[in-house]
Amino acid sequence: MSPHEPYDEATIVSLWTEIFQTQLALDYYPSPDSIVYAPVEGHAINEEICKKLKLSSAVVSLMKHLPYPRDFDIAHDFPIFEGSVAIPYTQEDQILFARDPDNDFAVNDEEEIRRDFLLPSEIALVVSIGEGLHLILDTAASIWLRHPNYE
């Protein structure tokens, strides 16, 4: 998606699904159920946390429709990209922790999370767990932000 193309959820979901399907076809994950695909109505996510964080409706909808690693252990042990993990937003705590990608998921205390680090229209699809990168999508501006240290 270039900065000139408007944000389109279906395109993002399709491309993200293709990445996971390719990795599954290559037997990258330990089992076929390592990736969970959204039902038509979307994944059940914690919408109360989304409201508290004032996330945009586009971000919440995207969270509901993306495929995810089954849990954070799968995401961590099988990075989607070298040094970077996909966020399983189906796990309640990941919605909050992913709002501050620079915490490298080392922070266990919710009080230490910078809840306003990302804009309400931004979503972290991938975060670095070392030498990787953060892949942030701004759904309002239709741009990708890729930074080793999202500054």
SSE topology:
Blueprint: H1 9-25, E1 35-36, H2 47-52, H3 57-65, E2 68-69, H4 72-77, E3 84-86, H5 92-97, E4 122-128, E5 134-138, E6 143-147
Antiparallel strand pairs: 1-2, 3-4, 4-5, 5-6
Shape field: globular
Distance between the termini: 21 Å
- Discrete helix count: 5
- Please give the number of β-strands: 6
* Overall domain count: 1
Overall average residue pLDDT? 86
* Category from helices, strands and their pairing: alpha+beta
Unreliable parts = none
**Biggest pleated sheet:** 4 strands, antiparallel
Series of H and E elements: HEHHEHEHEEE
Helix content: 25-40%
Strand fraction band? 15-25%
Strand order of the largest sheet: 3-4-5-6
- Rg from alpha-carbon coordinates: 14 Å
Written description of the protein model:
By secondary structure, this protein is of the alpha+beta class. The chain has one domain (9-147). It has five helices and six strands, in the order αβααβαβαβββ. It has helices spanning 9-25, 47-52, 57-65, 72-77, 92-97; strands at residues 35-36, 68-69, 84-86, 122-128, 134-138, 143-147. The protein has a four-stranded antiparallel β-sheet with strand order 3-4-5-6, with no helix packed on it. A two-stranded antiparallel ribbon has the order 1-2. The longest helix is centred in the N-terminal third of the chain and has 17 residues, at 9-25. The two termini are 21 Å apart. 27% of the residues are buried.
